[in-house]
Amino acid sequence: MAPSKKMPAKQTKKQDALNKEAFKLIAKLEKAKAEIARGKAEEAMLVGEHESKKAAYAREAERMDKQKEAHREEHKNKMKKLREETAKAKKKLDHVRFQPVEDNVELKLEKEKTNMSQQKGRMIAAERKLIEEDVRKNGGEPLDWQRCQICTEPFDQDRKPKVLKCSHTFCSHCCKRFHKNVAISCPIDRITTTVRLRAIDSLPENLALSDLCL
Ligand SMILES: [Zn+2]
Ligand SMILES: [Zn+2]
Description:
The protein is mainly α. The chain has helices at about 10-100, 105-135, 170-175, 205-214, and strands at about 160-165, 170, 180, 185, 190-195. Among the domains are: about 25-95; about 140-214, 2-Layer Sandwich (Herpes Virus-1), CATH 3.30.40.10.
């Protein structure tokens, strides 16, 4: 009886188990390789990140240095300008201090003032002449604008034109008439001007009117 060429069943089973083990090991190896590759890639990424961060820090440091330099320069310029301005002001002051005082400045000013008031007087006189003409044409009666709007009496030394807070002008008599409690209520717009009865004479006078009426 020839011996069987087939391996005994027991041996085949053992071979299968070995094969399985080998496959498992290969799979593990592949996994490990992949992990290593991933690790390397990660490391490369981290290195890259680190490098770019380093570059960014370097740029930031450079920027700050430049800024500091610019601030220093600005400060220097400011100080220089300030010093120059101070020197200029001092020079001006010295100039003023050592300039002989012109003693006739006040005199000149006084003269100018007199000139102006004389001119104003002449203008008013001319205006009054024209108004007198108008009054004459009006039969000797004062013109409408020369009269108080309320009582229609002409303004005069006794009936001075008084200006209320609302800017309306009435004669002092009417102001007294419309006075109630401690105020005058404007008969046109009802705006009140707070004033004591005794103080009505001290209300501001409408000088533009007085000049041409009184
Ligand atoms: Zn008024
Ligand atoms: Zn009046």
